[in-house]
Amino acid sequence: MTPIVSDNPQKHMGMPLPTPKVAMWLFLVTEIMFFTALIGTYIVLRHGTPAQSPHKWPTPHQVHLIEWIGALNTFVLICSSFTVVLAHHAAVKADMKKATLYVALTLGLGAVFLGVKAYEYNSKFQHDILPGHIGESLPYPDKALPSPDKEKNLLAIEREKHEHATGMQYFHRVQLQLEAIKNSSIDAELQKECNALLDEMTSAAAAEGQPAAFHRPPSPAEVGQRVNEILEKAEKKGVALYLTPAIPFGNLWASCYFALTGFHALHVFGGIVVFAIILLMAMIGRFGPQHATMLEIVGLYWHFVDIVWIFLFPLLYLV
Amino acid sequence: MTETGHATTHDAAHDLRVKAYFTVFIALSIFTAVSFIANEAVRQGWINLYTSVTIILAVAVVKAVLVGLIFMHLNFDWGRVYFIIVPIFILGVMMMMVLMPDIIIAWQPSQYPLEPPVSTTGTR
């Protein structure tokens, strides 16, 4: 009988790759563009902040980022990338039991990554390091120490006046938080300092029955400085104090941080959903060697998510 | 080549791949540690900031290349997909170049501090 299949397949148009793989690469290039826009905007904004001013881009310590936690999450994603290639390799060898095990491991590692991220987000919420919440201004050293250059002092005062307008929102936020602390029971020394600041902010410093002397309430910059000092003492004592810190460029940092890590975490979650579907298929016995290409394509997506984190980790936690 | 011989060669190729994956995994773990140590070295004053930033970013690029080449099989597929990937990188660089004049070059409040307001009511 004449064989139907020719040994010399006809030339055809298209790429010498499986169609799903081409589709995944096309999807990934749109993703590259998306994250390039986010990371590029972050780099541009960060380098747009004044390099010579005493108030610079926040350091990881100021915004409660812990480097080793970021490094741990990097390692977790690297491990998951390794397990996903092993899953694909096992599927190619038709060892579906091993492939399923590696998929389950990858899913578990992805969940660990999200768990660590949730812990970090919780810390940001506890310290109120959220976009639009943070006090941006602090007193400028060049104003505190009178400079022989009068024009320089004048400029510093004008700059603080300008920041005062945007700082009043922070002022009222801290006032409400201090009132809440006044009615709570915390460390006596810290409470005394908080109450003293609240009194100054509400101009209630004059003793009862005495005529109220003129009292200038502190500027948002001065409030920010006092709050930071109180928070530092609280940190040393190990007391959790709900007071919003003042960090120059803090809101911009928080917006960038949540946008970058939030979109990345959404991608990780997307990958976890796909791995869960694969595990479900394995449980009902519909996961076989024919799914090796599918596993390779899911792996491509997962490795891309890993590559994005490879750049986010140094940019946010280290550099 | 006999069928058994073909199978043996095939298995050997697979084993080589697993070895490559494992080597890359170890390399990625070591590189992560290198970035972390480079960051700590600045704090301890062993190296300056610029050296540390250069090391950390170079390590990130090497890690991304390793993942792309070995884990994403670009060492096999590059010739088939490069024309999709290369234009995106060119566009990405162009996008940053377009953003730069608006922000990095234009916005430097410390170098160009706010001018005192000009009085419109005259002096008293």
What order do the helices and strands come in, and which of them pair?
The complex is a heterodimer of chains A (319) and B (124).
Chain A: H1 19-48, H2 67-92, H3 96-126, H4 141-144, H5 150-182, H6 188-201, H7 220-237, H8 250-283, H9 292-318
Chain B: H1 3-44, H2 49-71, H3 74-105
Helix pairs in contact in B: 1-2, 2-3
Descriptive notes:
The complex is a heterodimer of chains A (319) and B (124). Chain A is mainly α and 319 residues long. Chain A has 9 helices and no strands. Chain A has 2 domains: 184 residues, Four Helix Bundle (Hemerythrin (Met), subunit A) (Up-down Bundle); 90 residues, no CATH class. The model of chain A has no long low-confidence stretch (mean pLDDT 86). Chain B is mainly alpha-helical. In chain B, 17% of the residues are buried. At the A-B interface, helix 1, helix 2, helix 5 and helix 9 of A face helix 1, helix 2 and helix 3 of B.
Features:
heterodimer, A: 319 residues, mainly alpha, Four Helix Bundle (Hemerythrin (Met), subunit A), 68% helix, 0% strand, B: 124 residues, 2 domains, flat, disordered C terminus
CATH C-level class of the largest domain in chain A is Mainly Alpha
- Assign the structural class of chain B, choosing from mainly alpha, mainly beta, alpha/beta, alpha+beta, or little secondary structure: mainly alpha
- The CATH superfamily title of the largest domain in chain A: Cytochrome c oxidase, subunit III, four-helix bundle
The residue fraction in helices of chain A comes out at 55-70%
How many β-strands of chain B, per DSSP? Answer: 0
Average pLDDT rating of chain B: 81
Strand content of chain A: under 5%
| Overall outline of chain B | flat
Looking at how many chains there are and whether they match, the oligomeric state comes to: heterodimer
> Over the alpha carbons, how many angstroms does the gyration radius of chain B reach?
26 Å
- The count of helical stretches of chain A stands at 9
Tell me about the biggest sheet of chain B?
Answer: none
Distance between the termini of chain A: 70 Å
Main sheet properties of chain A: none
Tell me the structural class of chain A: mainly alpha
Output the CATH topology of the largest domain in chain A.
Answer: Four Helix Bundle (Hemerythrin (Met), subunit A)
**Integer tally of domains of chain A:** 2
- Radius of gyration of chain A equals 28 Å
